[in-house]
Amino acid sequence: MASYPLTLPAGESSPLGILTHPNPALWILELRNGVDNRLTQPLLVGVLKPALDAVETDWRATRGRSSNNPNEWAPAALIITGKLDQDKFFSNGFEFANIKGDRLWFPHTFDPIALRLMSFPIPTIAAINGHAFAAGFVLSLLCDYRVMTSGKAWCSMNEVLFGAPLPVSFVHILKSKLPSPAVLRACTLEGKRFTAQEAHALGIVDELADGGSAGVLSKAEEVAKRVAGLAKTGVWGIMKKSIYPDVFEKSAGHAQPLYPPEEDALFRSKL
Fold this sequence. Notes:
The chain is α/β, with parallel strands linked by helices. It has one domain: 2-enoyl-CoA Hydratase, Chain A, domain 1 (Alpha-Beta Complex), CATH 3.90.226. The chain is built from twelve helices and eleven strands. The protein has helices at 41-60, 96-99, 105-118, 135-142, 159-162, 168-177, 181-188, 196-202, 212-227, 236-243, 245-250, 260-269; strands at 6-8, 17-23, 26-31, 77-81, 89-91, 124-128, 131-133, 145-149, 154-156, 193-195, 207-209. It has a seven-stranded mixed beta sheet with strand order 1-2-3-4-6-8-11, with helices on both faces. A four-stranded mixed beta sheet has the order 5-7-9-10. A hairpin with a 2-residue loop joins strand 2 and strand 3. The longest helix is centred in the N-terminal third of the chain and has 20 residues, at 41-60. It is globular, with a radius of gyration of 19 Å. The relative contact order is 0.15. This is Enoyl-CoA hydratase. One of its GO terms (cellular component) is peroxisome.
């Protein structure tokens, strides 16, 4: 068993993430990367990956311990939230300037962790306690449930507005989790900012919560308590791979798509 609270990356005096285990059926991962919680390489590799490792290791160790069934695990759920001392950002996505020239960012860094989270063997809940932009919005969609603040916060894929093509993994995640082609179009090609109320009405998020970050976390804990028992048979993650086949079969191994200047150069080279 890990020793909780677990501060990540290990050994850092100012952790980018804190993993707690407040009761036997619940883990909470608080992401704490600066004012807007950017999904940087240190956060993804040094926080999210080891947090998933710790949770899954501890949960798998419960097999046969909580009942008379040797093939049954304990109830469990994981909540992922933004910094709890603010109500402005869940995550503002990647640091675009730092990944723009990295052709291997997606196949080597983001995609393996994203697919791991999307197929995680226990229910996952995104406690969206502020804006969720671009990859931050995708992070919330990788979770099984979403609870969002009812205050001023948007969900948005704003890449079209700053000239970044969508990677293959993003496309399949969005197509699998958004409710309709019309919503997909508005989200991706128009860069629409969905208010919390719009996102809830469309089914993008499952619950709204008053009371800022504390209220969002409390509501997420209610959802976690309701669904934690679904982890007991061990098929939760396996079923998700069947439910979202395009995400798992078509996302991995693709480099970043061409950026507009590259596509422009390619077009001109054919004239």
